[in-house]
Amino acid sequence: MAKLTIQIPDELAQRLEPLQNRLPELLWRLLDTEPGQTTQQPLVSAETINIPEIYQEVLDFLLKRPTPEEIIAFKVSEQAQRRLQALLEKNRSGSLTSMEIAELDVYEQLEHLMILLKARATAK
């Protein structure tokens, strides 16, 4: 297996640290291909990057510059809640794919972020 060394800003390194063991998988996702499909030149374009819907939902909410009250009241959509429930059920049965594990991790990270935001908004 090849070893890749890159220089990145310290802030990015800190943000990537919790994802260290999943970086190869995330890079494959970025290239929109599966591991083992190395014979073809992968295409990279903004349209092929699959950002989980929940991520976009939270980003769209934050881009609106919500007030502390809006942050405290924030809830993800019914669709996102149903998807999370489905992922949790598959997790309990041990049948998650690696992509679903990554998606579930995104949900957990965003939940943690929103808990911190709500705590800060409540303190104001």
Keywords:
60% helix
How would you characterize the overall build of this protein?
The chain is mainly α and 124 residues long. α5 crosses α6 (98-123). It has helices at 10-16, 23-30, 53-63, 68-73, 78-93, 98-123. It starts with 9 loop residues before the first helix and ends with a helix. The chain is globular. It is 60% helix and 0% strand. The model is unreliable at 41-48 (pLDDT under 50). It is built from 6 helices and no strands.
Topology diagram in text:
Layout: H1 10-16, H2 23-30, H3 53-63, H4 68-73, H5 78-93, H6 98-123
Summarize the structure.
This protein has helices at 10-16, 23-30, 53-63, 68-73, 78-93, 98-123.
